[in-house]
Amino acid sequence: MGRILFVLFLLVLPYPAFSAAPDSGQIMIGKDEVLRGHFVEERNLKGFNGPTKSTGHFVIAPERGLIWSVEKPFSTTTVITPAGLMTSIDGKKVVNLPAQKIPFMLHLYEMLGGTLAGNWQAMEKDFTVTRSGDTQNWQVVLTPRDSENPAMPFNSITVTGSRYVEKVVLEKPEGDTDTITFIDQVAAPMPLSAAENAAFSSLHP
Amino acid sequence: MMRLAALLWLMAVALAGIYLLERLDQGLHFRTDLLALLPQEERDPVVQRANDVVTRSLSRHVIVLVGDKDRNIARTAATDIAHQMAGSGLVDINTNSFDKDRLKQIGTFYFPYRAGLLADDDRELLKTGQGEQIATRALSQVYGVMGFANAKLLHDDPFLLMPAFLTGLPIPLSRLSLDEGMLSLRDDGTTWVLIAGQLKGEPFAIDVQKKVSGNFDAAANSQRAGHLGLTILHLGAVFFAKAGAEEAMRETTSIGIISTAGIVLLVMAMFRAIRPLLLSLLVIGVGVMMALSVSLWIFGELHVGALLFGVSLIGVAVDYSLQYCSEVFAPAPGPPHERLRRVGSGVTLGATTTVIGYLTLFLAPFPGLHQIAAFSAVGLVAAWITVMVWLPFLDRKIITLHGQPLLSQCRKFLDFWQELRYRKLRIGLFCFVALFGIAGYMFFHTDDDVHRLQPLSSGLVAEQVRIQNLIGASTGSQFFLVQAHDDETALQHEETLVERLKPLVASGALAGFQAPSQYIPSADRQKKNRILQRGQLYKPLLTSQTDKLGLQDAPTMLDEDSAPLTLADVSKAGGSLTFLSSLVLSENDGEITHVIALDGIAQLDEVAAAAAGIPGIRFVDPVGNFSTLLGKYRLRAIELLALSALLMAPLLVWRYGWRKGLWIMVPPMLAVILAPSLRALTGGVFTFFDAMALVLILSIGVDYAVFCAETSGTRKPVTILAVAMAACTALMSFGLLVLSNVEAVHNFGATMTVGILLSFLFAPMACSVHGKDGQ
Predict the structure, then answer these.
(1) Which residues of B touch A150 (CB under 8 A)?
(2) Is the pLDDT of residue B24 over 80?
(3) Is the peptide bond before B764 cis (omega within 30 degrees of 0)?
(4) Which of A4, A107, A151 is opposite residue B145, by nearest beta carbon?
(5) How confident is the model at residue B760 (pLDDT cuts 50, 70, 90)?
(6) Is there a domain that residue B262 lies in?
(7) Residue ranges covered by each domain of chain A
(8) How close is the nearest chain A Cα to the Cα of B104, in Å?
């Protein structure tokens, strides 16, 4: 679970800040904005016939949370808000975790909030951060400081992008890799659509 | 002869003194758990054993919650506190073992038996033919955000039933979850980290309490000093017991000091001389010293509650020396031996009846009462011997005149009971008293709540409530007891009960529960699970699942013939399921005993009723049982009271004859009957402890009446004066217990106060007996 949360988290990071470019500090989306886009996730996993591939779309609203909708090969939707995490298949809830059950996710939320506010140290605490490139074409490599931490089972995370995050590559100790490509990303001002609103609200008690 | 007796007594006292010094040198050990004063429930050894195991395990729990807005501060502080507590060697911190190895161990333990294991929800789905949903869920987990894409796991468990089973295992403390190896929860912006431990020593031993509390306070304070926003909550019987013990010690000290000071002042004021005070202190000192020494020798250790009551006995022990010393007020005092001869019979008779009254306490099966009975009886006998054999040698002839005004007051009091002209007033008084007595009994009601026994520190209670709200569990003492001839039967019965408890959890009647069958399903349940898995999942869906998963090695069919999981396998779990040992008690005479632990009972009746009709399962409510028991012993105490009176009567009849002997019983009986009624009028409830007070009132009342009966002629006012002083000292010792914060002790003191006043008021009635004889 930590893995994908991490990806979602990375999506909204103000990456230019990591880059060496002098005009760093710009924030990708504002608090009253929504970032929508599509993704392709390709995983090379030991023991599977070829890479498993899934596609779908996502919605990020900094004030509300995240919606991750897989369309292929199966339609499943995961909604993450400060209230917790919920996964549904065809509108039927199959996983429902209230926030106090998953403190690690809230830890990430805190890091996220801190980073959006310009607190880069939040990342430095848990990762060694290596930055390269410029604002138009940057790359950040994150290496967990504590390789024993079960919540971060990665060797490294490589994030590349320009205006937005374009690609995230996760490498696991067993040699598995996970590549997520983000396409058609559009930032738009609020409000959310009725369906998005309903998805976020479904988690509130 | 008298000198020989005095010398022998000196040797006995010296011997006891040496023994006491030796014990003091070893360090005195006082018990503080007031429940230890209650009887061992001898009726049902199985319930008792289960009760002991559950209570012992509960009473050794130590829970600390460390909270801070900053997760890292909370975690570091919790780690430091846990380290410091574990470092003391007094507490085993078991939250330290909540690492990933432990989770891995649990997973490894269950995995070979997966064919027979199903999460409750999954079993329902399969029963209703919705296997498809489980298959899709597994695929969504592989392809969705959760990312359980482990080829090896999917090969063995293509429908991901094991993760569902493992996450469905009941976890005590339901709101907590594992955050990087620490049990934590988030509440209103604060991260709380749990430290849970088991005490290694006895939570009710004062030295253990001091060390554990001191260690915790030091650890907590050093963390608080470093982080101002930090909140540290703690919970555990050991902390409650320490607060209770401190309270009892403080009360013993303060009540003891006030009581002693009052008695000293009274004696000084009465005799205007130092000698009677020194004599009285000698009598008290020898009484208490002998009582302590002999009690320690008999019982090995004393309960702090017995000590509290024991301190009060000072007041009664002083009565005998007061009787003796007051003889200086007599018209012709005479030499010491002459004075002793005059009061000797009264003191002896009084001491005998009182000892009879105290010794009946031995008949109540309460260990603490045995200590009090021994303590008081030994103290009284020692005080009596001291008066009889030592005082005349230590006294000298004195002439006092200042007593006259007091004696004339006593004469007036006596006149009220003896003069014909006050007859109407006396009748009026009786009517008045009868009216109040009857009115009081209309308000009379009893209360046997065991919580009255323990003074709970309000600060700790508030912390307890906060912790229980945060971690989502209450530390209830109720449980279900499961008995059967073998584990399989017990587990099957539990499964029936679990089905009934689940709706109660859903409706909020119960916060949660842990049954052994949830961890180790019965062989029957496992067999049914295998049939469900094969029939509803593997047979119809395995082929399509294999295709969709795209695994290189296709998942294999379920192994149906492997042996089922049994309780005997738990030892293989490598210590990760050790908490099961508190639910599965060791086998005894071919009888299996399991416990189903319950968290947060909101609807006691509904929960208790859930076991109805299931063989071998019953609801156990130790606190409720204790309360019922207290009620039984309240009745028992009333029986003891009647028995006391019956045992005292022959002695009085032997001395005074039938009619007069029984007449002497009237004043104390009036006090005994009226005291509860007057207490009821002032809103008091009648408890076991009030009943015990009545037993003492009877003894004291008979004392006063006997003193009055043994006197005659011109000595009467002197005796009344001595009785008045005795009543005052008794009020100062017993009556002061009213100040106690322990409700039980307070009740005892209140009833004693009323009873002593009534005993004194009616005591002169006994005078008329001898008075008439003398005429």
Answers:
(1) 100, 180-181
(2) yes
(3) no
(4) A4
(5) very high
(6) no
(7) 2-201
(8) 11
**pLDDT the model gives residue B755:** 95
CB of B476 within 8 A of CB of B600? yes
Query: Which residue of A lies nearest to B142 if distances are taken between CA atoms?
Result: A52
Token pair listed for B690: 């009030």
Tally of domains in chain B: 3
**Topology annotation, domain A2-201:** outer membrane lipoprotein receptor (LolB), chain A (2.50.20)
Whether residues B589 and B672 fall in one domain: no
Query: Looking at the complex, does the CB of residue B136 fall below 8 Å from at least one CB of chain A?
Result: yes
Q: What does the pLDDT average to over B606-621? A: 87
Q: Classify each residue of B728-761 as buried b or exposed e, where b means 16 or more C-beta atoms within 10 Å of its C-beta.
A: bbbbbbbbbbbebebbbbbbbbbbbbbbbbbbbb
Kind and range of the H or E run holding B586: strand B584-588
Q: Do residues B64 and B195 lie in contact, with contact meaning Cβ atoms separated by under 8 Å?
A: yes
User: Does B427 lie in the same domain as B414?
Assistant: yes
Report if residue B669 sits inside a domain: yes
Chain A contact residues (CB < 8 Å to B): 1, 3-5, 43, 45-50, 52, 54, 68, 70, 73-74, 76, 78, 87, 89, 92, 94-95, 99-104, 106-107, 110, 125, 149-151, 176, 178
Contacts of A89 in chain B (CB under 8 A): 133, 136-137, 140
Do B738 and B610 belong to one domain?
A: no
Q: Chain B residue closest to A98 (CA)?
A: B175
In a domain, B22, yes or no: yes
Residue B311 binned pLDDT confidence (cut-offs 50, 70, 90): low
- DSSP H stretches of helix in B419-486: 423-443, 458-471
Residue B340's identity, in one-letter code, is L
- CATH number of the domain that residue B367 is part of: 1.20.1640.10
What is the ipTM for the molecules in this complex?
0.73
Each residue of B267-301: b (16+ CB within 10 Å) or e? beebbeeeebbebbbbbbbbbbbbbbbbbbeebee
DSSP H or E stretch at residue A35: strand A33-44
Task: Tell whether B38 is covered by a domain.
Answer: no
For the stretch B640-653, pLDDT in tens is 889 888 888 898 99
Full residue range of the structural domain in which residue B390 is found: 1-31+272-402
Distances, alpha carbon A104 to alpha carbons A5, A117, A122, B138, B447, in Å: 10, 20, 14, 23, 50
Phi and psi at residue B28, to the nearest 5°: -75, 145
Show the tokens assigned to B191: 């991260």
Q: Are B629 and B775 in the same domain?
A: yes
* Global pTM value: 0.66
The minimal CB distance from B175 to the residues A45, A76, A100 is found for A100
Q: Which of A103, A105, A184 is nearest to B183 (CA)?
A: A103
Q: Which residues of A touch B549 (CB under 8 A)?
A: 48
| Mean pLDDT calculated for residue range B308-331 | 76
User: Do B479 and B516 form a contact (C-beta atoms < 8 A)?
Assistant: no
Going from the C-alpha of A99 to that of each of A103, A154, B5, the distances in angstroms are 7, 24, 81
